[in-house]
């Protein structure tokens, strides 16, 4: 039976063990978590991608909902099998495209249409693809804690995208995708930060206070 290991080869519990990172330094927390992620073996990446797809039915969406995913870069957990499983069950898939240093938009992903470079090394639908407002967002991250707080990559694209959706009266469900070794003791959240509803790792859905 497949098992999960953290980036140092140990077998964590289903909830995982938070790492001891500096409590108030986001840059240090980000760097340490990404170093752990970078250390994961290729077979662990493959196992994790399959494990995410196994939870396609349980992350809180309905057929016909718009689900924004992302095209993985660097050592990110691979959401593509999950997105394929969601599409097969009736979800409409969108991918983010970087418009400028401040803005990402979400465009409908049609598997029959080739993707184009979407900024920061990722791939995205081209400018002719239909823009969509997600009902559920699959969000990449650097680190997360048991309160659903996350650290991104520092550009703030998702923070601003979420704020724009909220300003339009939308309340997308926020699902972080990460490896278990990206869990930390505490993310120093700010008042404007919106917590994730849940995080999905190779160990399954994480029970977080913000779930609703």
What can you tell me about this protein's structure?
- The protein has helices at residues 26-38, 42-53, 80-88, 157-167; strands at 66-68, 92-98, 104-108, 116-119, 122-124, 136-140, 143-144, 150-151, 173-177, 198-201, 204-206.
- With 212 residues, it is of the alpha/beta class.
- It has a single domain (43-206), classed as NagB/RpiA/CoA transferase-like (Rossmann fold, 3-Layer(aba) Sandwich), CATH 3.40.50.
- Strands 3-2-1-6-9-10-11 form a 7-stranded mixed sheet, sandwiched between helices. A two-stranded antiparallel ribbon has the order 4-5. A two-stranded antiparallel ribbon has the order 7-8.
- Helix 2 (42-53) runs parallel beside helix 3.
- The longest helix has 13 residues, at 26-38.
- It is globular.
- The two termini are 31 Å apart.
- Mean pLDDT is 88; it is low at 1-6 and 8-17.
Q: First CA to last CA: what distance?
A: 31 Å
Estimate the strand proportion.
15-25%
User: H/E series, N to C?
Assistant: HHEHEEEEEEEHEEE
Number of domains: 1
Helix proportion range: 10-25%
The assigned CATH architecture is 3-Layer(aba) Sandwich
Q: How are strands sequenced across the largest beta sheet?
A: 3-2-1-6-9-10-11
Extract low-pLDDT stretches: 1-6, 8-17
What sort of overall outline do the alpha carbons produce when their principal axes are compared? Answer: globular
CATH topology term: Rossmann fold
Report mean pLDDT, rounded to a whole number: 88
Oligomer: single chain
CATH superfamily: NagB/RpiA/CoA transferase-like
Q: What is the tally of beta strands?
A: 11
DSSP summary: helix tally: 4
Rg for CA atoms: 16 Å
CATH class: Alpha Beta
């Amino acid at each position: 039976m497949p098992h999960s290991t953290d980036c140092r080869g140990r077998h964590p519990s289903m909830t995982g063990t938070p790492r001891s990172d500096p409590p108030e330094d986001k840059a240090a927390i980000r760097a340490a978590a990404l170093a752990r992620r970078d250390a994961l073996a290729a077979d662990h990446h493959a196992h994790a991608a399959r494990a995410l797809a196994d939870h396609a039915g349980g992350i809180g969406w309905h057929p016909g909902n718009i689900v924004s995913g992302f095209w993985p870069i660097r050592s990110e957990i691979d959401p593509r099998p999950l997105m394929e499983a969601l599409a097969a069950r009736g979800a409409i898939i969108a991918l983010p495209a970087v418009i400028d240093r401040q803005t990402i938009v979400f465009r409908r992903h049609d598997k029959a249409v080739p993707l184009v470079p979407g900024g920061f090394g990722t791939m995205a639908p081209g400018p002719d693809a239909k823009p969509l407002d997600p009902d559920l967002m699959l969000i990449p991250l650097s680190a997360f804690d048991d309160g659903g707080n996350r650290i991104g990559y520092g550009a703030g694209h998702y923070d601003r995208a979420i704020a724009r959706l909220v300003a339009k009266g939308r309340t997308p469900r926020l699902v972080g995708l990460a490896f278990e070794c990206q869990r930390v003791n505490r993310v120093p959240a700010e008042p404007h930060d919106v917590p994730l509803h849940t995080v999905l790792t190779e160990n399954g859905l994480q029970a977080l206070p913000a779930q609703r």
